[in-house]
Design goal:
Number of strands: 0
Number of helices: 17
Radius of gyration: 22 Å
Largest sheet: none
Order of helices and strands: HHHHHHHHHHHHHHHHH
Structural class: mainly alpha
Strand content: under 5%
Distance between the termini: 36 Å
Shape: globular
Length: 330
């Protein structure tokens, strides 16, 4: 208890040094857990795309957003453009660096919302949390997406005292969409949060101006990705697995050049109502909800405390950003 109290006091008095300490501890743990012997893993396509960008080929990935590859490309250009093996090594180091940097927004979130031993416990848990550490050395976009998501949450929390910070959250929302297509969900989350938090707090003309600005900032930051998809595929929202949503399952990951994508009406003409229900409800929505709660059950005791806290405090303004993010992931 005295150790936690001492650390808590140190964070309060010298938070910059404390933040640097947590970052270095996190980065060291991630490096220790990184398997540098793995040459090809699930992130293979992103590293190849980043290597191509470093060599001047900016052709997009049909089935993924390009933000992570764009982020990796300058590092690979400087340190790893000689071949895939070297580029992959650089990508693993950058993945660990980005994951360790996630401590920075989390530190300030904890500093804003928690006090004393609770703040220290949250930070220690974050840098040692197995679901986070499993991404050590894996150059997937999830690492960068988590960093951006935590930045969004931090600026949403800050916006409760100064509305201008919601525009910073919108900018990071646009970056999250550049990183993963499902980052698009952050735009409605930000709009719902602002609508709930500020409806009675500012004049209506200013309120609606902010709502428009949130959307504008998000789309402006995401515009390079949107324009590239439009130029390449004819739609700014084109995405292989979304375009193929009504195709047969074995065609979902068909990476051939985009062709004719079946519509919902075409799907209904070749499938029964039960087959449609099984595909999109039983094996879609319900399975997604079950999987989410199954993941929580992996850390069952923590999950119980988490759900109890969410039920008791989740609609408080300072915790509303987290409630909205959790609801969107479910």
């Amino acid at each position: 208890e005295s150790l936690f109290s001492s650390i808590g006091l140190f964070i309060e008095e010298r938070h910059a040094i404390a933040l640097l300490g947590f970052f270095l501890v996190s980065f060291s743990i991630l490096l220790a857990l990184t398997d540098f012997s793995v040459v090809k893993d699930g992130a293979y396509e992103y590293v190849v795309e980043a290597l191509n960008i470093a060599r001047g080929d900016f052709a997009p990935l049909d089935f993924h957003a390009n933000g992570w590859s764009w982020f990796l490309a300058p590092f690979i250009f400087l340190f790893g453009s000689s071949g895939f093996s070297q580029a992959n090594l650089v990508a693993k180091l950058v993945a660990d660096l980005v994951l360790a940097m996630s401590v920075i927004p989390f530190f300030y979130i904890a500093k804003s919302l928690l006090q004393g031993k609770s703040r220290v416990a949250a930070l220690v848990l974050f840098v040692t949390f197995p679901p986070v550490l499993k991404w050590a050395g894996v150059p997937n976009p999830e690492n960068l997406l988590m960093l951006f998501t935590l930045c969004i949450l931090y600026f949403m929390v800050r916006s409760t005292s100064d509305a201008k910070y919601i525009l910073a959250a919108a900018a990071f929302g646009g970056l999250s969409y550049l990183t993963r297509q499902n980052g698009l969900i952050t735009l409605p989350i930000l709009l719902v949060f602002f609508a709930v938090a500020f409806f009675r707090k500012m004049p209506k003309n200013q309120y609606f101006a902010y709502m428009a600005l949130i959307a504008a900032v998000f789309l402006l930051v995401a515009s390079p990705f949107l324009w590239q998809r439009y130029a390449e595929y004819g739609s700014p929202f084109s995405f292989n697995q979304v375009d193929n949503i009504f195709a047969e399952k074995e065609q979902w990951y068909d990476l051939a050049a985009p062709g004719h994508y079946p519509s919902f009406l075409e799907f209904l003409t070749t499938h029964s109502i039960k087959a449609t229900y099984d595909r999109f409800i039983a094996e879609g929505l319900f399975r997604s909800v079950f999987y989410t709660f199954h993941q929580i059950s992996v850390v069952a005791i923590l999950g119980l405390f988490f759900l109890a806290g969410l039920a008791a405090r989740g609609l408080e303004l300072r915790f509303l950003p987290f409630t909205l993010i959790i609801a969107a992931t479910i």
